[in-house]
Amino acid sequence: MEEVREVIARGRSFLRANWAQFTHVDSDQERGVPAPPLQKPLPPDAQVVTLPDPGSLALGSMPVSEAIRNRKSRRKYSAEFLSREELSFLLWATQGVRRRSPINTLRTVPSGGARHALETYLYLTRVAGIGEGLYRYLPLDHALLVLPGPEGLAGRLDEALFEQSWDAAAVFVWAAVPYRMEWRYSWVSHKIIALDAGHVCQNLYLACEALGCGTCAIGAYDQEKLDALLGLDATEEFSVYAAPVGRQIDRAATP
């Protein structure tokens, strides 16, 4: 029982993250250490899938009040494919870059200090024109990097998500690269990263509603299995959140 109390106490300390104390902590940014990359670098043999330009898309015209009113967690999806344009819209809505500088990016979601410490991984099964497999979103390029997928990927991912992939057309998994935020905010960073993940997933909910799609946020998963499946080292990068996406079973495709 004492061990449980200690764990709870550490969790509460994490949530409090006293900013008054932060003024006494030097960050790597203040020490003049160069900023970490805004996006994980590409391997030399990178295979990249381009996505439609978000500015060219005539999607997501539902009034925001209606999207908020209809928003709910949806765990049943139709067998219909998402379009390439719809996937492009969902990725732009959750991590799209509006402006960049040498040390940060301004995106479609808020982030502490515009540091954006999250990477987006996707397992795609039913997206028109894009093969089934594992991908990483490249926000600076608005494209997908093809990743190697182990055998039995669908079953292994569902197992890692505690059987919560629900035969979705796409599964979003967000991974944290903590140093991107730590470079500026030191030990306060981890609370900010958790807040950022909430911003991202809420945008996914609203964007899905606008397209006649659905999603459900997943915070319960097998950390080791999910990190291993995505090829993450579990120290400098690890999964923090997931969300399957599919067409709402009672709604037709949005033109």
Structure characterization notes:
With 255 residues, this protein is α+β, with helices and mostly antiparallel strands. The chain has one domain: NADH Oxidase, CATH 3.40.109.10. It is built from eight helices and nine strands. Strand 4 and strand 5 form a beta hairpin. Helix 3 crosses helix 7 and helix 5 runs antiparallel to helix 8. The longest helix has 23 residues. The chain is globular, with a radius of gyration of 19 Å.
List the keywords.
255 residues, alpha+beta, NADH Oxidase, 7-stranded antiparallel sheet, 8 helices, 33% helix, 19% strand
Task: Please specify the SSE layout and strand pairing.
Elements: H1 2-16, H2 19-22, E1 48-50, H3 64-70, H4 84-95, E2 97-100, E3 105-107, E4 118-124, E5 133-138, E6 143-147, H5 153-160, E7 170-176, H6 178-185, H7 189-211, E8 213-215, H8 223-230, E9 238-247
Antiparallel strand pairs: 1-6, 2-3, 4-5, 4-7, 5-6, 7-9, 8-9
Helix pairs in contact: 3-7, 4-7, 5-8, 6-7
